[in-house]
Amino acid sequence: MKAALLSRVYDVAKETSLDHARTLSQRTGNQVWLKREDEQPVFSFKIRGAYNKMASLDSEFLKRGVVASSAGNHAQGVALSAQRLGCRAVIVMPTPTPAIKVEAVRSFGAEVILCGDDYDAAYAKAREVEAEEGLTFIHPYDDPAVIAGQGTIAIEILRQHPGKIDAIYVAVGGGGLISGIGACIKELMPEVRIIGVEPEDADAMARSLRAGEIVTLDRVGRFADGVAVRRVGQQTFEIAKEVIDEIVVVSNDEICAAMKDIFEDRRCILEPSGALAYAGLKRHISHHGWKDKELVAIACGANINFDSLRHVSERAEIGEHREAILAVTIPERPGSFLQFCRAIGDRNVTEFNYRYESESAAHVFVGVKIANLDESGRLVAELREQGYDVLDLTQNELAKLHIRHMVGGRAPGASHERLFQVSFPERAGALLQFLEKMSANWNISLFHYRNHGSDFGHVLVGIQVPERDEDAFQRFIQSTGYECIEETDNPACALFLS
Length: 498
Known about the structure:
Elements: H1 2-5, E1 18-20, H2 22-28, E2 31-36, H3 46-55, H4 59-64, E3 66-69, H5 73-85, E4 89-93, H6 99-107, E5 111-114, H7 119-133, E6 136-137, H8 144-160, E7 167-171, H9 176-188, E8 193-199, H10 204-211, H11 234-243, E9 246-250, H12 252-266, H13 276-288, E10 294-299, H14 309-319, E11 323-331, H15 336-344, E12 349-356, E13 361-369, H16 373-385, E14 389-392, H17 397-401, E15 417-425, H18 430-436, E16 443-449, E17 456-464, H19 470-480, E18 483-486, H20 491-496
Parallel strand pairs: 2-10, 3-4, 3-6, 4-5, 7-8, 7-10, 8-9
Antiparallel strand pairs: 1-2, 11-13, 11-14, 12-13, 15-17, 15-18, 16-17
């Protein structure tokens, strides 16, 4: 608490507003407040911790300069802090980092080094630069001065909301933000619940708290890239064990829905990690049936690539549980398609893909507007009662990311076909590198890629691999260095592609 009070963040950061979200409050039956860290000069809370750390350095170290590794918000915080303090800053960013983020860092006068395909590679390079040039490494979260800087947010909340607060929801990546906020809140108002929120594909803190020790994830999803860390900090973990009351884990679709909700209420567009806290708030109060509570969600950042909004818009309705995605098998006879449309009733159809399979059956990929999850269950039950074979794909990530765009791609002649979902860095030559490593004996029988404006692309690829080539094929998969998940047995593939 004392360290936060003595922090020098306001040399460069600003006290952000605590906005009452009227629409969100009415919708949830609680009083919802948004702490608007997207209002900072770098559109993220990261400026607080970065500046506080750098301002605390001895003049000799500051004169030498600083180095950091980051793909976004921390990079901008360090760069702006260096500009204000008049020191050199070197920022190592992964090669696939979108140009808009690279240019934002350079605009503050920092030197940018592009290295590696992910944060781990950039981090290793930054540590090399630190050793070779005698620079000071500015850690994005696992540092007492950084944690104290983030804690100033808690002090502002208590000053801006002098009455009762039931819970504060905080996005969790490496743990710096929730450690700083939680430590201050628990010292002054221990009755306030500190609730962390993580994506289901980047839940390192939740797993670590359950295990009682730090758990390193094998892989992390990159949609909410601001919190996509494989391992939380040692210092932040020790603080988290004392101050976090609960962790809520949410889906990417729920994050998209939260982004839409906040836009409709405040007309601001947050990045996925920026809307993470509100997504957790929604899930948490729904699970516990909370009403008439005073709840604060930290809107921690707004550095989003414009191209990503297409994906967010597409998935928001599913995350809000207002759209069901179904695969339905119907008999292939005159009038059956019309009969199926009548079975859906007066519900609004958001998507319809029909594909003839044989003389006896056809498959329909359909999106239907619903009011809530209960209605989705009722719709599935109604269709089954009428004799339809129904598969609910609403939670099937492969179906939502690829299959919906590929209905009709069945290929009976593609023998030995296996389907893989591959994630690769969005940089020139990445796809070519994948293809060049593949044996000429393995034919590509299917390929689907769609750009979502993120650092990593996702491909669904079909490869014809004879059984005798299994060992060689596994060596190939390992050699790519890309994340490859086999989807051959995914039910959505079985219906529409295999």
